[in-house]
Amino acid sequence: MAGALLTVLGTVLPPLVIISIVSLFYQAFRESVVANWALSGMLCGVAAVVLDVVINMAQGVIRQKRILPLVIMVASFVALRYFSVNILVVILACALIGAADTLRQERRRAA
Questions:
Q1: Residue 52: inside a domain, yes or no?
Q2: Which one, of 101, 49, 47, lies nearest residue 70 by Cα?
Q3: What residue numbers bound the domain in which 76 lies?
Q4: 99 phi and psi, to 5 degrees?
Q5: Dihedral sign, CA of 100, 55, 60, 74?
Q6: Per the confidence metrics, is the pTM higher than 0.70?
Q7: Residue 77 near residue 57, CB atoms below 8 Å
Q8: pLDDT band at 28, cuts 50/70/90?
Q9: Across the chain, which distance is largest between two alpha carbons, in Å?
Q10: Is residue 15 in a domain?
């Protein structure tokens, strides 16, 4: 019994202490004015990176000169932005449409 209790304390206590200490530092970090300024600056940088990725991906889609990817891109944006559709629904719908389109293209090539 003593060995079992010691094992439980040895496996539960150290992570509990570490998590408690980290949460104290995290709370102090979140309340810091300087940290909030830094996080705001980081958000601007993240937005710029996301915008760059979207522009590069859109250029690739436009170069393909296919209508379906353009429709999917615009419809996804509209569904997310204006109709607040869950992102998982949009991802699954895009995956299904993409799989169906790929199968259709493969059948066309085979024929």
A1: no
A2: 101
A3: 66-111
A4: -65, -45
A5: positive
A6: no
A7: no
A8: confident
A9: 74
A10: no
Determine the Cα–Cα distance for residues 13 and 30; give it in Å rounded to an integer: 26
Three-state DSSP state, 58 = helix
In the three-class reduction of DSSP (H, G, I as helix; E, B as strand; rest coil), residue 1 is classed as coil
In single-letter form, the type of residue at position 66 comes to R
* Number of domains making up the chain: 1
106 within domain boundaries? yes
Residue entry with tokens 């600056």: 41
Q: Which residue has the tokens 């200490």?
A: 21
Asked whether the beta carbons of 72 and 97 are under 8 A apart, the reply is yes
Task: Kindly state whether residue 57 falls inside one of the protein's structural domains.
Answer: no
Distance CA 103, CA 109 (A): 10
Tokens representing 94 are 């895009």
Q: What pLDDT, in 10s, does the model give residues 35-88? A: 778 777 788 888 889 899 989 988 988 998 899 999 999 999 999 999 999 999
* Lookup: tokens for 48: 């710029």
